Structure formats: structure tokens, C-alpha cells
Amino acid sequence: MGDLSTLQLTVQRLTPEFKPEDIFIATGTTYKDIVHKQLPDIPVANIILEPHKKDVGPAVAYAAGYVAKMSNEDEPIVILWSDHIVKHQDKFKKILQASAKFVAKHSDKIIFIGQKSRFASENLGWIEYDKVVESGDGVEFMSFTGLKYKPEKDVAQKYFTSGNHCWNLGYFVTTPKNLISKFEQFAPQISSHLNVIFRSFGAKNYNEILHKEYDKIPEINFDNSILEQLTEKDAYVVVEDIGWSDVGAWEALKEALEKSKKDTVTLGKVKLENSNDSLIYNYEDGKLIVGIDLDEILVINTKDALLVTKKSSVAKVKSMVESFKGTVHEDLT
Questions:
Q1: Is 294 found in the same domain as 156?
Q2: Domain endpoint, select from 225, 246, 267
Q3: Angle between helix 56-70 and helix 188-199 axes, rounded to 10 deg
Q4: What is the C-alpha separation between 303 and 283, in angstroms, rounded?
Q5: 45 vs 63: CA distance, rounded Å
Q6: Which structural domain range is residue 97 located in?
Q7: Does the pTM exceed 0.70?
Q8: 211 — phi, psi (to 5°)?
Q9: How many domains is the chain built from?
Q10: Could you report the per-residue pLDDT of 208-241, keeping only the tens digit for each?
């Protein structure tokens, strides 16, 4: 976005309130050098390297345990994601600061930061909330009722019109200690291995144990395994319009860049006729993409693959890519 990656933008919107030594980056070992190059002010020890790709559940659990060891398990933390856009940054930071104060008093709670929904998305999680429980520093904390990850189209439409549902951004404030306890309660198949890992934290053979034990952890979705298991007593919700977009999803990138819903957003050599509400990205300089009568279509052309799908079907891309494992296309997973 402009001259900065979304990772850089994510860190930038936290400053100057958060200092570099208080920011941790969780990523895969493949991206260590890229992260350090893009964020040279972040201490190297604050780059948390997952040795194997195991989905978001183990990644969050490992990050929570790492921060607990490097900092303070009772200190409020916020979990954020690096492929998002937040336009209303002052409001966002105000929410973070108020939520940190709330968690400092209620260390056994999780504070969800929810975006007021703009449409009936099937590709996001939805949080159900109720009445205001407490307020502070101009921020209202709502009671939490439940969470649903990627609902069916008719259910998403029902949520959108209900007046008591918001988008789950995956942003939440809690303490490492509380988050670790939730994994022990709901996902012991993760925490059992992480307990072995962190018992050796700081030892000479730490990396050896980390790789060995992390490899044994099953791939587990974070929303399904933890967030959907939470009850009213576990969490509160802050619901606001912070101008959020998940540009890690193609249809969300289109929504973030468009001036109106009917706009078609393009990149690279693209020639269109009578096309509406689509996104056409062409990363090959030597090829022209021509589109005629396109409506709600995504076309993404890279040197490795060409994706053509309806906007409404983009949630199926992940399962399609996962199906490549063990095939001649495994290098794309």
C-alpha cells in the first residue's frame, strides 16, 4: 500500500505509543530476514520464529508463551495481524489503551475489538454481543454472547441485519497467562507440546526441542479451537468503526481500494469492457489480461498460477490450495 508493506503499516500505526522493544513479530523461519529488513528497529529477539507451518492456533499459542517468557505473563498484550488496513488510527489506539486498562483490572478476560459490519461477509468471523457492561476513557465494553467463524451466506445476512453482531477482526486484548490457560483448557494437544518447549527456554538445546515438539503439534484453526469455545464469562467486546479492511483476502482488498462498489480495481496490464465490481491483478509485464462482461469476478495472474473465481467463492481458495499437497502442484502450498 504505497511504499510500505502492510506489515510496516501495522507497526507504524502503533507508534509512538508502543515502543519497538514492546512489539513482537510472529512469523515463519522463511521470513526472518525480510521482517528484520523491513522493521530494523524491532529487536531481533522479538521476532518469534515458528519452525513449521501449523495454522493459526499453534502460532498464537507459541507467541503467547514466548512473550510470557520474554516479558511478563500478567501484562496486557494485544494480538494483531499484519495484512490489515486500519484507517481510523486515533480511534484504534484509544481502544487499545482503554482495553489494556480494563484487562489490567480483569486479567481473566479477553477483550475483542470488533468492526461494525459493512456487508454480510461469509469470509469473516462474526461476534455476537449484548449490552454495555462497563465504560472507560470513552470506550464501551459490551457483554460477549458468542462467535461464529465464517458462517453460511444466509446466516451472514441474518447477522448483518441483526444489530447485535460485528465482524471479528482477530484483534483482542488479554494477558499471556490467560491466553495460555485457554489453550490448556480447549486445546491440550497444543499446550502439552508447548509446555515441553518452554521448559527448555533459554537452554542450549532449546531450538532442537522447539523443532522436535512443534513438529508434533497438529494443524488447528484458532477460531474454531479457542474463540468459538469462549462463553459470556470469558470475554467482552468493543464495537467500533475503525475503518478496518482485511486486505489479505482478495475481495477485501478490492473493497478497501474501491471508491464505489461498482468499481473494478486493476493492477498491471489490463484491458476491460463492460466490467463491474471486479478485481483484476496482473503481475506479468509481458502479458495483457482482457476481460469482457465481468461481474463480481476476481482474476489474479502471477508467474506461478492464474486464479479466476467469483468474489463470493474466495473462501474456497484455501481448501483448494491445501488439496495440492502430495500432488505435482505441492510447491504452491
A1: no
A2: 246
A3: 30
A4: 7
A5: 12
A6: 6-246
A7: yes
A8: -65, -40
A9: 2
A10: 999 999 999 999 999 888 998 999 999 999 999 9
